[in-house]
Design a protein that fits this description.
The chain is mainly beta. It has one domain: Porin, CATH 2.40.160. The protein is built from 5 helices and 16 strands. It has a 16-stranded antiparallel barrel with strand order 1-2-3-4-5-6-7-8-9-10-11-12-13-14-15-16. Strand 6 and strand 7 form a beta hairpin.
């Protein structure tokens, strides 16, 4: 663990002790409305996983996924939320791992803007699809979806910047979100000593624009559907795909070829009988994204990931059998190609069985089969290309504290 990481870890632990104390008097003295800002909601969520893989290079792409056979500390998530005053809400999410501590999200969000507007400023998960906006403990499956890892890197799509959202005055729920941020994945590259710009936007080449339209329609008391479309234009720097072998250090503001155009869509169909004592449910989620390659091959990058296009996605079906048991299946695919005839593809199929003895703990048994088609041309696929590989993961999650409710 580096000295800077150790210092950050100790500072966060010290702050956690200070923030547990009630802060009602200070905030109410500043004019907070009654019942707001009276306390800081905090929670700790521990995720552990024991895994066995048939290959030394498994298909997992996530920074918190088990990457080798044996026991893995996926993370200890510390979440803090609070109504600061009548105008702002605060959210902070830090994750402790064996390698140190990272800030997953830290932002302030407005609560009193007119015309159904809301602003968010800080570091946050980008509004692309449904799965990217969820933390590890909110996933049904143990590992990160392949398409997110291949595009954004192990930590998914998150960045430092500003997001504006608007709830349209329609008979159904329709939210439009527009974000302007630093390059997605850049803060992770900086932490690893790479070429990212972190929160620095030296030029338009270091910026990323994200637009999402998300709609929800109720289909009666028991059924609901949510549909979203999103687009991104700018710097996408996911380590496993966009820069596979490392790249020369870049200075923010200098020209580079990170700019990509991404489009994404997602569809969630959920059935949950109203008033069902068994709390049964069924949910089908389909999500896909496409990253377009540059309009023509660059002489210095043709046949490499920097000049590649990618199509990827996942479909998962989850069934809640009763309050304690869930089962699910997931199918994922990746197709990557450039403009000079190079390509590789990847498939992964996963089955899941989950047992929740209470609302504060969960055991998940997951098994998968994965295969990557041999690469053609100069575009290198994963190291395990051509061979089927399989793995089994048993994961334990325990929760304590007061955690804010997740969105529908």
């Amino acid at each position: 663990m580096s000295l800077s990481t150790l210092i950050r870890t100790r500072l966060l632990l010290a702050l956690s002790g200070l923030l547990i104390a009630p802060c009602a008097s200070a905030q109410e003295g500043a004019g907070a409305a009654p019942g707001r800002g009276a306390f800081l909601q905090q929670s700790l969520i521990l995720d552990l996983a024991g895994a066995w893989f048939s290959s030394a290079a498994p298909s997992q792409t996530g920074g918190h996924d088990p990457l080798r056979s044996g026991l893995t500390l996926q993370g200890l998530e510390w979440t803090s939320t609070a109504h600061v005053d009548p105008y702002f809400h605060f959210t902070g999410v830090a994750v402790f791992t064996a390698g140190g501590v990272e800030i997953e999200e830290a932002f302030a969000q407005t609560t009193a803007l007119p015309a159904s507007l809301q602003l968010k400023v800080g570091q946050f998960l980008l509004p692309v699809g449904r799965l990217n906006g969820q933390h590890l403990h909110a996933w049904h499956f143990v590992d990160q979806p392949l398409h997110l890892g291949r595009v954004y890197g192990g930590e998914g799509g998150r960045a430092l910047g500003l997001l504006a959202s608007w709830l349209a005055p329609l008979p159904w729920s329709c939210e439009v979100a527009l974000a302007g941020t630093a390059a997605a994945g850049a803060e992770r590259e900086d932490a690893a000593g790479g070429h990212g710009s972190g929160g620095v936007i030296g030029s338009v080449d270091d910026a990323l624009a994200t637009l999402q339209v998300k709609q929800f329609v109720s289909l009666g008391d028991d059924w609901g559907v949510q549909f979203g479309v999103a687009g991104q234009l700018g710097a996408l720097r996911g380590e496993p795909w966009a820069q596979p072998g490392g790249a020369p250090a870049r200075v923010p503001g200098e020209p580079h070829d990170d700019a990509k155009l991404l489009t994404a869509t997602d569809l969630l169909l959920r059935w949950r009988p109203l008033g069902d004592p068994e709390r049964r449910f069924a949910a089908l989620l389909v999500e896909a994204l496409r990253v377009a390659p540059p309009p023509h091959g660059h002489a210095e990058t043709s046949g490499t990931h920097a000049d590649a296009g990618l199509l990827g996605g996942a479909a998962q079906f989850i069934v809640g059998i009763d309050p304690r048991w869930e089962a699910g299946v997931r199918a994922e695919f990746i197709e990557a190609n450039d403009n000079v005839g190079s390509a590789w593809s990847e498939r992964r199929h996963t089955a899941l069985l989950a047992w929740k003895p209470t609302e504060f703990s969960r055991l998940r048994l997951q098994a998968h089969l994965a295969r990557s088609a041999p690469a053609t041309g100069a575009l290198d696929g994963p190291a395990r290309a051509g061979a089927w590989q399989y793995g089994t993961v048993l994961a334990l999650e325990v929760f304590t504290g007061d955690h804010a409710a997740h969105p529908w």
